[in-house]
Design goal:
This protein has 444 residues and is of the alpha/beta class. It has helices at 28-41, 51-54, 70-73, 94-101, 106-109, 113-117, 145-162, 189-197, 205-215, 232-241, 254-267, 284-289, 292-310, 316-319, 364-384, 413-427, 439-442; strands spanning 18-24, 82-87, 165-172, 220-222, 244-247, 271-281, 323-330, 339-347, 353-361, 389-390. The strands form 2 sheets. Strands 2-1-3-4-5-10 form a 6-stranded parallel beta sheet, with helices on both faces. Strands 7-6-8-9 form a 4-stranded mixed beta sheet.
Length: 444
């Protein structure tokens, strides 16, 4: 594997023309994202939750008082220049899909109904074997998986031409597939393409989307815990083609809270005896995760967070052998309004036990939508800056961040945030911020 992408950059090209954002999946997350962007464009709402739209970034010494909005500092695509496209095995247009998802109220959907009704999903590459709880008829057919992937490439080319887009980016917003362990089929691009031609079961639909996007020069962001682009073959292909990739699994509710609380425990050198997490949700994601094979994929993503943050191998007295249990229960009445319960058993001075209880009544798609926007805009920016391969600086947005071979991913939310902003500073020719606190004296 060649070197990490972050050092291979150039002066970012300007964001001219239209940017097409393609989403495999036109369900709750994608429709909430699309509806939100259109609502913001029409002045009906604010982009709450989006760093690209609302966050500032400090530049230089504190005494300089330079803290522009990120979108004023970095040449990001303007919201008015975004065009939307999607694939989905269910043929509903974005308005119908949003109504069925039940995330947004009519008072927010009806004013933009005309716009949403015009967005119809392209036939998806979909196999029930990989997502057992979804059944749809808007599905591609072909002689083998290579043929299906080539059809996706043609979709990408057609969409770009028909919508007069200068650039495209793809953000996976579809369901969690069954758990797949990387095998020899994923080791090299030659083996991967041979496996596609042989209809190998180890090549899931998400991998076909990833391959098609990379081949077409389209940055790919993996919003689910699917293996997808997290293989040596596709990572090398992304480097060879000069395409940014990132993943896996949007960091929205419960895991986001873990990446806030766990660094706090570690910062104070407080011990952890156990962390029990359970979720109830009733949307399509909950139905899919009701299948044990799909839940296994999600469980692996969720379980990795605490170990990587707390580093029990370095701090055995505090974290060795802590219990970590994750449960997800499908409960239809809850819809998209997921409820996450956490019981955290910690220990302090002289080993005395304490507990933390968290009950997070979150809205899954409301938290995910601004992540989709930020990943799309930042990935497009990275592409224009000549970055390629894994974008570790986007780990801020993922439950199970990808990292270069041999490196452990960073899960601490605050380190991730620093890495993200320092990457932006670096690419724009500004000094990175270390927070040493010496700026005042050095400026004298």
């Amino acid at each position: 594997m060649k070197g990490s992408s972050s050092s291979e950059s150039q002066k970012p090209m300007p964001a001219t023309g239209k940017l097409g954002i393609l989403t495999p999946g036109l369900g709750a997350v994608a429709t909430t994202f699309i509806a939100g962007v259109e609502s913001i464009r029409r002045g009906y709402s604010k982009p709450i939750g989006s760093l690209t739209q609302m966050a500032t970034i400090r530049l230089g010494k504190r005494t300089e008082n330079r803290s522009p909005l990120i979108k004023e500092f970095v040449p990001l695509t303007q919201l008015d220049d975004i065009v939307f496209g999607a694939w989905d095995p269910i043929p509903d247009d974005a308005y119908t899909a949003a109504k069925k998802a039940g995330v947004l109220e009519d008072k927010h959907l009806e004013p933009i109904a005309d716009f949403l009704k015009a967005i119809k999903p392209m036939p998806a590459v979909f196999e029930n074997h990989y997502v057992t709880r979804i059944h749809g008829k808007n599905v591609k057919t072909g002689k083998n998986k290579r043929d299906l992937a080539e059809q996706l490439r043609q979709d990408i080319r057609n969409f770009k031409k028909d919508n007069e887009c200068e650039r495209l980016v793809c953000v996976w917003c579809a369901s969690t597939e069954i758990f797949i362990v990387p095998g020899p089929q994923h080791a090299t691009i030659a083996a991967f393409e041979k496996a596609m031609e042989e209809n190998d079961e180890m090549i899931a639909p998400s991998m076909l989307y990833a391959w098609a996007c990379i081949m077409e020069g389209v940055p790919y962001c993996n919003g689910a815990p699917n293996l997808a682009v997290d293989t040596p073959a596709l990572q090398q292909l992304a480097i060879d083609k000069g395409v940014p990739i990132s993943g896996k699994d949007f960091k929205t509710g419960q895991t986001w809270m873990k990446t806030i609380i766990a660094p706090g425990l570690k910062a104070r050198m407080l011990g952890l005896e156990g962390w029990y997490s359970t979720n109830i949700l009733g949307n399509r994601d909950g139905e899919v995760l009701d299948d044990p094979a799909s839940f296994k994929t999600k469980e692996e993503s969720k379980l990795s967070v605490l170990h990587n943050i707390l580093q029990p191998e370095i701090y055995p007295d505090l974290y060795e052998g802590f219990a970590h249990v994750v449960r997800i229960n499908y409960y239809p009445p809850r819809g998209d309004n997921k409820e996450g319960w956490d019981n955290i058993d910690i220990k302090g001075w002289m080993g005395y036990p304490m507990q933390i209880k968290v009950n997070f009544l979150c809205r899954d798609s409301i938290l995910a939508a601004p992540i989709v926007l930020d990943l799309a805009l930042f990935s497009d920016f990275a592409h224009r800056a000549g970055m390629k391969g894994i974008q570790e600086w986007l780990s801020f947005y993922y439950k199970s961040p990808m990292a270069a071979a041999g490196l452990q991913p960073e899960h601490d939310l605050f380190i991730q945030q620093t890495k993200l902003k320092n990457t932006l500073r670096h690419l724009m020719g500004e000094e990175q911020i270390t927070h040493l606190g010496l700026e005042y004296y050095q400026s004298k």
